[in-house]
Design a protein that fits this description.
2 domains; Helix Hairpins; 74% helix; binds zinc ion; rod-shaped
Length: 233
């Protein structure tokens, strides 16, 4: 005769296996679903291309400034030379003023361009960093999930062999009855009795007749409300 205690032990193992299986399904789904990682490749490339183009422009403007400075030096040499005529002097002075004005403008433009260039370079780097860290995070998560899955696999094997040993020691008819009850009663065939009078599966108070029968620990007594086999530790 199978005691409620034995069936309860079997159910404890079955519940453990159920929870392992549920967690495995959840984790495998998580792996299969993947993660929405941002693809900022195009964004990074656009910023980088812009930075390079601005860099070319910056170099061109610097060359232009260099030429202007050379010209300004030449003009100033002529301005302070003793054999320059008075009429030429005022023409040269105008050219000097104009060259200085252009230099100032170029200088301002360069500052602006260099600022833009830095902004695009920083944005390209930020986009790449963001992708890299999202990738690394996902890799870490995959590793964590796989570790946990391996743990669950081992736990399941242990539980399955414990179940096999226990199930083999029970009469086939009792096992069948237990399994049928599990199927029909949301996975719980054996209900614990609490405070000596309440079925913990359906929360109903047991009749004194049922309680009397429960004194015999070897007997399988069903709950008069939910029909599960009662187990009183
Ligand atoms: Zn019950």
């Amino acid at each position: 005769m199978t005691t409620p205690q034995q069936l309860y032990n079997l159910q404890e193992i079955d519940h453990r296996i159920d929870s392992i299986d549920a967690e495995r399904v959840r984790l495998q789904k998580r792996l299969a679903d993947g993660v929405n990682r941002p693809d900022l490749t195009v964004e990074a490339e656009n910023h980088y291309t812009r930075a390079v183009a601005i860099g070319d422009n910056v170099r061109a403007k610097r060359d232009e400034m260099e030429r202007l400075r050379d010209r300004l030096n030449g003009l100033e040499v002529r301005l302070y030379s003793s054999n320059t005529s008075r009429r030429d002097l005022s023409t040269i002075q105008r050219e000097v003023d104009s060259a200085k004005h252009q230099l100032n403008q170029l200088d301002e433009l360069l500052l602006e361009l260099e600022g833009e260039q830095r902004t695009h370079e920083a944005a390209a780097l930020a986009a790449r960093d963001e992708m890299r860290s999202a990738h690394a995070e996902w890799q870490d998560l995959i590793e964590t999930i796989n570790d946990r899955l391996a743990e669950l696999e081992a736990d399941r094997e242990t539980s399955a062999s414990q179940r096999q040993v226990l199930a083999a020691s029970l009469p086939a008819a009792d096992l069948e009855r237990y399994e049928r009850l599990r199927r029909n009663k949301a996975g719980t065939a054996i209900a614990r009795v609490d405070n000596g009078r309440v079925c913990l599966a359906c929360r109903m108070t047991l009749t004194s007749n049922v309680l009397r029968q429960l004194r015999d620990k070897s007997k399988q007594v069903p709950c008069s409300t939910c029909g599960r086999i009662l187990y009183q530790p």
